[in-house]
Amino acid sequence: MNIPNVNFPNVNHLIHAYRVAPWRVQRQWIGNALLAVVVFAMVAALYLNVTSRTAIAGREIQDLTDAIASSQQVSSDMQTQLASLTSASAMEKRAREMGFRPVQPEELEYLVVPGYVAPEAVDLSSTIQPQLNALTIPPEYNQSLLDWMDERLVSRSIQ
Hints:
Blueprint: H1 9-20, H2 23-85, H3 88-97, H4 145-158
């Protein structure tokens, strides 16, 4: 196949333009390189932003965890102080310092209130122990598997 020699004026003109001005090709390479650098910088900035936000959130979580631990420590200390202040020996000591003393039996005076009935103590324990034996369990649950199969076979052989 012979292709006729056709002259394309636009193609020849472009080739001639690039041969005459090689700085255009260099400009395209520099533009592409700068575009790649800008894209890389944007991705790096985005990554740095996400990483820094994550680090800040992690640090805030650590600070809050430390604050919780500190609050629990203070609460435990206060509970210990309250327990020591309300112990029987500490209460008795403070009462004696304020002028109180133990009551003597002859100083007691009981007051009878008409119509008052003392509440009865609730007894949650069971006095009746249900005992399970073979007589209280239904016969369906007293049968073994072999007894049941024997009964079924005997009933079928009788029929």
